Amino acid sequence: MRNSIGLTAMALMFGVLAISGCGDGRPTRAPVTGRVLIDGQPLTVGTVKFVSSGVRSSVGQLDGEGRFSLTCYEKNDGVIPGTHRVRIAAKESIDENTVRWHAPKMYADESTSGIEVVVDEPTQDLVIELTWDGQEGPYVERL
Known about the structure:
Number of strands: 11
Structural class: mainly beta
Oligomer: single chain
Organism: Pseudobythopirellula maris
Protein name: Carboxypeptidase regulatory-like domain-containing protein
Radius of gyration: 20 Å
């Protein structure tokens, strides 16, 4: 009787670990979804990337409503919890020598974006607000 209780407890523990995803040998991730707005309007072109020292980055593609879902190892699995600097590269190629920026270029580099997000748990509906800050946009850049 005592062995069957122990086996049942062990099976339950392994089941919980399998469901929670902790058994894949990778760091724990927290799912993150949200929207990017520029001057109050959805940013519909570009990628969002969360970057943190010593851990794998996470990235998400913006959709037609400015929404994103972050991927670290597997689709939509989120980010490794912690403090992340954020970059938003909102550009589209027009041709091999020309791009159109849909947000100021400073946001495309985590060291100049000024955006930092702390993720401790699953996060839905995170809103990241950008601004043209009086600049005219979108604008075209020749490479």
